[in-house]
Amino acid sequence: MSLSARITIPATKRVVEIPTGLFINNEFVPSADSSEVIDAINPATEEKICSVVAGSEKDIDIAVAAARKAFNTTWGKNVTGFERSRLLNKLADLIERDQELLGEIETLNNGKPLKIARDFDISDSVQCLRYFAGWADKILGQTIEVDNKTKLGFTRPEPIGVCGQIIPWNYPINMWSWKVAPALACGCTIVMKPSEVTPLTALMLSKLVAEAGFPPGVLNTVNSLGPIGGAALSAHKNVDKVAFTGSTLTGRKIMEAAAKSNLKKVSLELGGKSPHLVFESADLDQAANWVCLGVLYNSGQDCTAGSRLYVQDSIYDKFTALLVAKVKELVIGDGFDEKSGGGPLVSKAQYDRVWGYIESGKSEGAELALGGQKRAGKGYYVDPTIFTNITSDMRIVKEEIFGPVLSVGRFKTEEEAISLANDTTYGLGAGLHSSDANQCMRVSSALEAGTVWVNHYNVVNNNIPFGGKKQSGIGRELGMNALEEYTSIKAVHWNFGDKCEWPL
Fold first, then answer.
1. Are 405 and 396 in contact, with CB atoms under 8 Å apart?
2. How far from chain centre, in Å, is Cα 148?
3. According to the lineage, what is the superkingdom (predicted)?
4. Widest CA span of the chain, in angstroms?
5. Do the beta carbons of residue 480 and residue 135 sit within 8 Å?
C-alpha cells in the first residue's frame, strides 16, 4: 500500500497529506512482513478516513533495534541535556505552528470538538514539551558524605533505556506528549504504539520529530493492534520500560508480560470510577458547573470522569434540579461546529459499550433524570444521561463507563460521604465542594485517590504529578515525579584514602 494518504477535511476543505506507514529511523516504511491495515474512522459520520499500515511483531523488533542503536550512539548518555532541551523546544514550536492542522485531524479521527482539540489538548501538549525541555539539563544527582577523610558517594540519574509507550484514543495528542516529553528529556529512546482507533495524529507528530532534528531511532512509531504491538512491546526482552495508559484489564496483562520477560520497569495509568462530593456549604452554582465539566468533558471519555456524584441530603433536590438544567445546555454535535461542547464517542465499540451500561442502569432500577434515548441518524452520539435513585451494587455505580453517564446518590454526614467515595476498587481522581476550609482539609486527606480536586474538577497542570492508587495504576506522569519513571539511579562509592587490610 501507499505510505501516505491525501484526504480532504470536509468542514474546512483543507487537503492534507497524512503519512500512513510505520515510522522507524525517521522514515515512513511498510511492514516487514504484513499486508494488514488499520482503518481510521470518522466517528461523526462512521465513514473511513484512510487506512494505515498495521505493524507486526517483527516490526516491533525492528523498531526496538532502531531505538537501541540510537540510545547507544546518538542519544542516551551521548548527548547533553542542553541539546535534548533544544530539540524538545523545537518540537514544541513545530506543533504550535501546526496547531490548527493537527486539531482538525484530531477532530476528524477522534470526534472531539475542534476548539477543544486545538485550544486545550494541543496547547497543553506544547506546554508539556516545554516544561520537560526545561528539566532536560537539570536532572541532578547527589554527593553524599561518608567519611570526609577517605570516602564519598555520589549518585547519577541515568536514562533507563528503550521505552515502549502505549497510548489511548481519548486524548491522542495529549497522551503522546505526556509520554514522550519526560522520556526524551531524560535521554530515553521510544517505540510508540498509538491506539489503533486514533492513529493519525501520532503519525503527523512523528513527521515533526524528524523535522525538529532528532536523530534517527530516537522516536519510532508502530501502528498496530493492541494484542500484537502492545503485547510485543510488553514482553520484549530488549525494552527497558513500558508506559501504558488505558484499561485496568490491559494494564494487568502488560504487568504480567513485563514480569515474565525481563522484569522491565512498568508505569500504568489505568481506569477510574471517580467520586464527586457536594456538601451543603458549597457554592451550588459553581459546583454544578464543575460537576458538568467533570463528567461531560470529552463526552465522558476521561479516566478521571467524576461519574459518581454524591450530594448532601439537605441540598439534594435543589442541586439535582440545577444540575439537570445545566447539563441540558451542553450541545453534543459535530466537532467542527463551534456550538458543540462535546462530540460523538470515538468508535462503534465504545458506543455499544456505553449503551450497554445505560440499559443496565434502567434494568437495575435506577431512575432516569435525563437522557437515556438513542438518536437517529449517523454518528456515535450519546446524549448526557443522568441516573438517580442508585444503589452501590449497580453496574453503573461500580464499573467504569467512559461515556457521558452520571450516577447521583445522596449522603447525610461527612463520614458517610467519605465511605461512599472510597467504596471502589479504583483510586484515580476525586473531587469535593465545600466552603468549610476545615472540612476541605479533612475530606481531601481521607479520600483514596491519586488526585483530589477541591472546589473544581478535572483540571491538570504539567508541573503537578498525576497518577492513581489501588487499581488505577502505578507511577506518576507530569511534574518532576515523571522524571523518576524514566531514570535509573546509579550509586558510585569513591574511596580515596581507606586502605584494605588483608587477610581478614
1. yes
2. 47
3. Eukaryota
4. 88
5. yes
Question: What is the rounded radius of gyration, in angstroms, for the C-alpha atoms of the chain?
Answer: 24
The grid coordinates of residue 270 equal 489505568
The confidence band for 2, taking pLDDT boundaries of 50, 70 and 90, is confident
Q: What is d(CA 242, CA 141) in angstroms, rounded to the nearest whole number?
A: 24
Alpha-carbon distances, residue 313 vs 94, 307, 316, 320 (angstroms): 52, 19, 5, 11
217: left (phi over 0), alpha (psi -120 to 50) or beta: left
Q: How far is CA 284 from CA 244, 278, 289, 317, 426, in A?
A: 37, 8, 9, 12, 27
Question: Whole-angstrom Cα distance, residue 402 to residue 274?
Answer: 11
Active site residues: 269, 303
Nearest to 187 by CA among 221, 156, 143: 156
Helices (H), 98-216: 99-110, 114-116, 123-135, 172-186, 200-212
Q: What average pLDDT does the segment 224-235 reach?
A: 97
Helix (H, G, I), strand (E, B) or coil at 301: coil
- pLDDT band at residue 165 using 50, 70 and 90 as cut-offs: very high
Give per-residue pLDDT as tens, 306-338. Answer: 999 999 999 999 999 999 999 999 999 999 999
Q: What is the helix (H) or strand (E) element at residue 431, kind and residue range?
A: strand 429-433
